[in-house]
Amino acid sequence: MSISIQRMSACIARVLLSISLFAVSAFALAQSTSQPAAVSADAPPRLLLVAAENFYGDVLAQLGGEHVTVTSLITQPNQDPHLFEASPSTARQLANARLVVYNGADYDPWLPKLLAASKAPQREQIVVASLVGKKAGDNPHLWYLPETMPALGAAVTAFLIRADKTHQDDYNARLTAFLASLKPIETKIAALREKYRGTPVTATEPILGYLMEALELKVSNARFQQAIMNDTEPSAADIAAFETDLRQRRVNVLIYNAQTSDEMTRHMLKLARAAQIAVVNVSETKPADISYQAWILSQLNALEQALAGPPK
Ligand SMILES: [Zn+2]
């Protein structure tokens, strides 16, 4: 009996949500977040957290553990994230969230718009860009900036303790473990910088920009990369400069972002292969079956192999 009433009210909540996606009432919210019947009465409800991008979602899950339920919105490594469009289910998830984490710096401009359109007094937000002093116009690929994840870890843990003080010790322990798990990435960056600083490389899109800075590599064709990111046409001069870099082997590595590829980037990929320049394939969005840390390390390992050149 109680189950069917719960189902009915959940159904009503769905109807309400679909009628007024952007003006969800507190009543409908309470209904749609009700726990499944199997949860015992004394189990505390999990905190609902939403991340715009799945690498931040993975970090939220690591920091919150069994006390949180995490939804990531951008999860497909085969879709251009710069052109992502929110669906009605996105608005519903944002309406129910206690914490929303998004990149900012114009990477996900649809998200602050949705938040402004759907007020939820109990919802907090963390804009990753403002944690590391970046803004619109800066390179938005902040999850490759070494300072980002420690700053995000601290901010998320502060929220979790605010929202769920009972589990403060657990959250603090999880933050300590999280920060320790970033060390192999820092160690790898330091080792590669020591060995390869100043090496000329190029890229089809500025995805690894911050990592390139941390490694002190010499990156060419910045304007071309910017145009690809913004889905605009690179100038003829910028195209010619890129082609020359590849044909004359002025760069040792091409970093290829398959997730923001088009005819022009595939043309450059072909030239690089023809000139036997090492290619490192990277994506913007984390593959589903791998942690943030393992994902970044695997990309650093691929970069290391490319920088080392063909086996002698
Ligand atoms: Zn990008």
Automatic annotation (TrEMBL):
Top-level taxon of the source organism: Eukaryota
Pfam families: ZnuA (PF01297)
Keywords, in A-Z order: Metal-binding, Signal, Transport
Main localization (coarse): other
Localization annotation: Cell envelope
Signal peptide: 1-30
SUPFAM superfamilies on file: Helical backbone' metal receptor (SSF53807)
PANTHER family associated with the record: HIGH-AFFINITY ZINC UPTAKE SYSTEM PROTEIN ZNUA-RELATED, METAL-BINDING PROTEIN HI_0362-RELATED
Listed name of the protein: Cation ABC transporter substrate-binding protein
Organism: Linnemannia gamsii
